[in-house]
Design brief:
Layout (H helix, E strand, L loop, with lengths): L2 E5 L19 E6 L9 E3 L4 E4 L2 E7 L5 E7 L2 E5 L13 H16 L5 E7 L10 H9 L2 E7 L6 H9 L20
Parallel strand pairs: 1-2, 2-3, 7-8, 8-9
Antiparallel strand pairs: 4-5, 5-6, 6-7
Helix pairs in contact: 1-2
Length: 184
């Protein structure tokens, strides 16, 4: 099977040059256009659709940097936001928070597909605002499975999430190597 390696943007928690050392006989790199890499790769930018092998990849504008991905493959649809999130910071200027809300909601409203697996940012640094993106996406999209991301290795967020949101679609990761099996 081929291996497709996606990188949404050039932040250290999303991209590292070590991806070049991944050993696989049939790998393909798909990087946001803000990533400068010596590896042969497809460079993608927001608001485009790309066909690569049997993948259909739609890119979304990020509210931070780079792109979010919607990937259709083998009759399944996956969403990975990168840093596309409703970044509402308690001590930030209100104009910034309004911009974040509007641009996040516009990006999510552009998604028309039913999503089999949606990765959704749950960032503990946002404190009481960490579920804004999750709640908005659950209300406005059809999603079968949800995988929280952006934990920065703080898996106590999983325990809190399981108490705060009793949604059976949410896969609660307990550690960095936690595996989930999806049903079509």
């Amino acid at each position: 099977h081929p291996l497709y390696i996606f990188n949404s943007h050039n932040h250290h928690d999303h991209y590292h040059e070590s991806v070049a050392s991944i050993k696989h006989p049939n790998k393909t790199y798909i990087f946001s256009s803000d990533i400068q890499s010596l590896e042969d790769h497809y460079s993608v930018s927001p608001h485009n659709t790309y066909e690569i092998d049997n993948l259909i990849i739609k890119t979304l504008f990020s509210t931070d940097q780079g792109v979010g991905f919607i990937v259709d493959v083998d009759q399944m649809t996956f969403f990975h936001p990168g840093d596309l999130n409703w970044w509402h910071w308690k001590d930030e200027d209100e104009r910034f928070n309004i911009w974040q809300k509007e641009h996040f909601q516009n990006a999510i409203q552009s998604i028309k597909e039913e999503i089999d697996l949606a990765c959704i940012v749950i960032d503990g640094r946002l404190e009481e605002y960490r579920y804004l993106a999750l709640d908005y996406m659950c209300e406005h999209l059809t999603i079968k499975h949800i995988l929280p991301i952006h934990y920065f290795e703080d898996y106590s967020l999983s325990s809190q999430l399981s108490l705060d949101r009793k949604d059976p679609r949410i896969c609660i990761p307990l550690h960095n190597q936690h595996e989930f099996k999806l049903k079509k």
